[in-house]
């Protein structure tokens, strides 16, 4: 077991150590030691890593393990559970959180676009009616499906319509103007 002198620290860290160790006979000093088995694995450095000039990484296992500068003892098997615990993981930086969030959104979009693909007109005809929102009407033929919304406030008129042909070409109309044809 490795024992390390760990009390060359600021007062705040020193107080955290005293609270964590929770012994009446413990006196913190520069010569005080705590066994490494009382530290969570996230605080123990077991190997050194060096990046070479050619960008490769050299990993050398340490003969004598050491603890990180922010380490504090937290594992005490014979103590009450609120005194012996695994420390929580640190927070990610805002940049890391945003990057992870974008990655999740990209994965969800890729999954959605893969699962939401219509491969044939027949499959579309079977499933489209379930996905239409309130207020949409539709006409179904062998050659196309027409989905439209009516403005019934004054003289009834078609506000918007989407026409999907058998070859999956789409026409979008708004107020009797063709906006887009997509194939």
TrEMBL record:
Domain of life: Eukaryota
Pfam families membership: THAP (PF05485)
All residue ranges annotated as the THAP-type domain in the record: 12-76
Keywords: DNA-binding, Metal-binding, Zinc, Zinc-finger
InterPro entries xrefs: THAP_Znf
One MF annotation (Gene Ontology) recorded for this entry: zinc ion binding
Protein name, entry field: THAP-type domain-containing protein
Species: Araneus ventricosus (Orbweaver spider)
